[in-house]
Amino acid sequence: MRRFVFFTDLDHCLPAQGGSLTDHGRSALDALKSFHIPVVLLSGKTRAEIEPLRERLRHTDPFIVENGAAVFIPPQTFDFPLERSRRRAAYDVIELGTPYAMLRDVLKQIEDAVNTPLHGFGDLSLDDIMRATGLSRQEALRAKLREYDEPFLMNGPASLLEEIRRQIAARGLRCTRGERFFHLTGGNDASRAADILLRCYRRKWQGLDRAADVETVVIGDSMSHLPLRANADRLVLLQKPDGSYDTDGDRPDCIRAPGIECAGWSEAVLDLLQNAA
C-alpha cells in the first residue's frame, strides 16, 4: 500500500492570521483527510500563533514550530512511545531547540561583548512589534510568546554583524536573517524535525503493513524554508506573490505549481491527489 505524508510550509501557503480559507483550500484539506493523509504544518511562527490557525483549518495532525525547534504531536497520533518526548498541555512534544530564557541570556552577553544595544523581542513592547511587523495587537502578543527563537534588531556596520555571528557561533548557537529581524536560535532545523516525524509515520504504517511504501510530499514557495528538499519524493514549489519561482538550490525534478499562496497550494494538492489515485 502506498502512503503519503504532506509537509507544508504554513507561512506562505495557507491563510495567515486573520485570513480566511477559500472553498478551494477547504476542498484540498478535506480531500487529504478523506485519504487519511497527514498534513504536517511547518512554520517559523510560535505555537501560540499556530494554534488558532489550526483551529480555523480544523487541523489535527502534528506541527513544527519556530523553524524546527519543536514538534507538537497530538495524543493518539502514534501508538508507541516517542523518544525524547514529554507531555505538555494537549501534546507530546519533541524539543530540538534551545530554551528561550537561555537565548535571552546569551543575547545580553553578546550585547555586552560588542558594546552595542541588541533589541530582542523580549525587549520590545507590543507597540514596537506591531510597528516593525504590521501585526495586530493580538497577533503581536502571540508572536511575543516565544519558546525557542529570539528575533533581534541590530544597527551597525557589516563588521559588527560579523563579530555578533562569531560570538553566537562560539556559544554553539546560530544566527539567521529573516525579512525584518535577525534570529538567535539553537542548532535546530526543519529538516531534522520533519525527519523525526517521517520515521514515526513509517514505523506506524509498517507495523500495520510491512510492505507499506511511504512517500513524502513537500510544498512551499521558498527552497531554503523547505525541509527534506534534497530527498523528498515530490517537491512542489509554489509561485511567489510576484509570480516568480524561487531558484535557490532548485531540484531538476521539482514540480512548479501555478498559483500563489492558498490558491496555488490548493491546486497543487488536488492535482497531486488526482495523479496519485
UniProtKB/TrEMBL annotation:
Listed GO biological process terms: mannosylglycerate biosynthetic process
Entries under InterPro entries matching the protein: HAD-like_sf (IPR036412), HAD-SF-IIB-MPGP (IPR006381), HAD_sf (IPR023214)
Domain of life: Bacteria
Protein keywords: Hydrolase, Magnesium, Metal-binding
Any one Pfam family match given in the protein's UniProt record, by short name: Hydrolase_3
A GO cellular component entry from the record: cytoplasm
Protein name: Putative Mannosyl-3-phosphoglycerate phosphatase
Organism per entry: Nitrospira moscoviensis
